[in-house]
Design goal:
One of its GO terms (cellular component) is cytosol. Pfam families: Bac_luciferase. This is LLM class flavin-dependent oxidoreductase. Belongs to the bacterial luciferase oxidoreductase family. With 393 residues, the chain is of the alpha/beta class. It has two domains: 2-339, TIM Barrel (Alpha-Beta Barrel), CATH 3.20.20.30; 343-382, no CATH class. The chain has 16 helices and twelve strands. It has helices at residues 17-34, 55-65, 83-96, 111-116, 124-140, 180-188, 206-219, 241-261, 274-281, 289-303, 320-333, 335-338, 343-354, 356-360, 363-373, 380-388; strands at 2-7, 38-41, 70-73, 76-77, 101-106, 145-148, 153-157, 171-175, 191-194, 229-237, 284-287, 309-313. The strands form two sheets. The protein has an eight-stranded parallel barrel with strand order 1-2-3-5-8-9-10-12, surrounded by eight helices. A two-stranded antiparallel sheet has the order 6-7. The longest helix has 21 residues, at 241-261. The two termini are 36 Å apart. The relative contact order is 0.11.
């Protein structure tokens, strides 16, 4: 299973935005060091908190600071861009990162962004579908693409570079509160970013949405693979449950009241007490590594078949030190549980423990002989162990 973050980002108004962007880059470098698999970076243009306007620029900077982590847009709001330019930019990133780029797609989450550009809310999902149609056809590199809609036109368009990744870099569609995202992902055989998994009640809908996506994929002759399904939830890890809750209580409340309530007017599906409700529902994971493990296992049960990855919505509920510590604790004590990296060390330890008398006991004779051969007295503690026939481990 893959793990990573979904970086909107979320920074309080009043915080130095230049320093905040620097912290975001430092966070991704830290995650790369810890062995996280993915980071998805958002696109927003209003409301003051989510201050990255160009995921592509951010990905280019992050790629130079990292070695392994995959970097995607989370998401590129397709109605805001000509699809030809989206395809061209991500093909370039695919080459410049040697295959570490990913394209996340969505209709645009902030209504205020679309309003400023004169895009009607009722048109956004249709526009996303039309853009995806164009982008997937361009990336196929099979024949020139000609199509015309009420907002873009392609005339014998073709890319001047084929993707670095064959047949193309990973593409995923965001799904939050409506089925449009999962239906688009199924229609084009793409990955799925289930942002709704982190909303109260969202986990209960996961299996049903997946079935809808599978049915849509079958209708269009596409494959809808669980390996490309990522679940996006909130997470903070500390050594004990009580410490984790203390870490995040104040910061989460500030985010809920200042941003989601006072700025956005509490969007649909947003609870008045998202931390408390999310903890009860299992859509927010706050606690010790053991608690987080159980929470992820419970989340995966709702999928009725599993998913390819879990992403954590990057937030600053806790202070900087505790936030970085949270990601480290998760990488050390939770991630291995789901990535099959603990089996061999555990088996090796168990084998040594069960056979220690027969394996380590005889070695004491060799150690004693080494002293005798050197003409030296055998230390008393070795004589005692040899006398009892036991090895103190």
């Amino acid at each position: 299973m893959r793990f990573g973050i979904f970086l909107a980002p979320f920074h309080r108004v009043g915080d130095n935005p230049t320093l905040a962007l620097g912290r975001d880059l430092e966070l991704i470098s830290w995650l790369d060091t810890l062995g996280y698999d993915e980071a998805w970076i958002g696109e927003h243009h209003s409301a003051g908190w989510e201050i990255i306007a160009s995921p592509e620029i951010f990905i280019g900077a992050a790629a130079e600071r990292t070695k392994h982590i995959m970097l995607g847009s989370g998401v590129t709001s397709l109605p805001y861009h000509h699809p030809f330019l989206v395809a061209q930019r991500f093909v370039q990133l695919d080459h410049m990162t040697c295959g570490r780029a990913m394209l996340g797609c969505g209709p645009g989450a902030l209504v205020s962004d679309a309003y400023m550009m004169g895009i009607k809310a009722e048109d956004q999902r249709r526009m996303m579908d039309e853009s995806l149609d164009a982008i997937t056809r361009l990336l196929a590199c099979e024949e020139p693409v000609t199509m015309k809609t009420d907002w873009f036109e392609l005339n014998q368009a073709r890319l001047h570079l084929a993707p670095y990744t064959y047949p193309h870099f990973p593409i995923a569609v965001a799904s939050a509160t409506t089925p449009s995202g999962v239906l688009a992902a199924g229609k084009y055989g793409l990955g799925l970013l289930s942002l709704g998994a982190g909303l109260p009640g969202g986990n209960a809908k996961l299996a049903d949405y997946w079935r809808q996506g599978e049915a849509e994929a079958a209708k269009h002759g596409k494959q809808f693979k669980r390996d490309g399904w990522r679940l996006v939830v909130n997470m903070h890890c500390a050594e004990e449950d009580e410490r984790a809750l203390r870490d995040v209580a104040r910061g989460e409340r500030i985010e809920t009241l200042s941003y989601f309530s006072e700025t956005l007017g509490r969007p649909p599906m947003r609870s008045e007490n998202p931390l408390g409700d999310g903890l009860k529902a299992g859509t927010t994971l706050v606690g010790s590594p053991e608690t987080i493990v159980k929470g992820i296992e419970r989340l995966l049960e709702y999928t009725e078949g599993g998913a390819g990855g879990v992403l954590f919505r990057a937030h600053e509920w806790a202070n900087r030190e505790d936030t970085l510590r949270s990601y480290e604790l998760f990488a050390r004590w939770v991630m291995p549980h789901f990535q099959n990296s603990l089996t061999m060390p555990a088996q090796s330890r168990e084998w040594c423990s069960e056979n220690r008398s027969g394996i380590f006991g005889p070695s004491m004779n060799a150690l004693r002989k080494a002293f005798v051969d050197a003409g030296q007295e055998v230390p008393d503690h070795m004589r005692m162990r040899l006398h009892t026939g036991k090895v103190d481990l």
